Amino acid sequence: MWRAGGRPVPTQATPATGWDVGVVKFFQRIGRFLRQVWSELRKVVWPTRRQTAIFTGVVFLSVVVVAVLTWAFDTIFSALLSLVIDVGS
Fold first, then answer.
1. Fewest CB atoms within 10 Å of the CB: 45, 50, 59, 74?
2. What is the model's pTM?
């Protein structure tokens, strides 16, 4: 219903039924999830700049060590395999 002047007449809100309920609950769950995420993020103790630099250095050093070990084992096994292949010919 419309009033004079083109404004709608306020109607009484009807309870949501059918798929409306599912959509409303879906967005309520999303809102609750985001509030919980924010609450948990406020509890996090973030590392200092110095700690972050140290942890980054440890990760970088670990990657270099693993790369060197991989290269060394690859070189050793390649040499052994070439010896085995050469002896067999």
1. 45
2. 0.53
Average pLDDT over residues 12-16: 59
pLDDT above 60: residue 16: no
**Rounded CA separation 59/62 (Å):** 5
DSSP line for 5-67: TSPBPP-PPPPP-THHHHHHHHHHHHHHHHHHHHHHHHH--PPPHHHHHHHHHHHHHHHHHHH
Element (H, E) at 74: helix 49-88
3's tokens: 């009033």
Domain ranges of the chain: 63-89
- Predicted confidence band of residue 20 (pLDDT cuts 50, 70, 90): confident
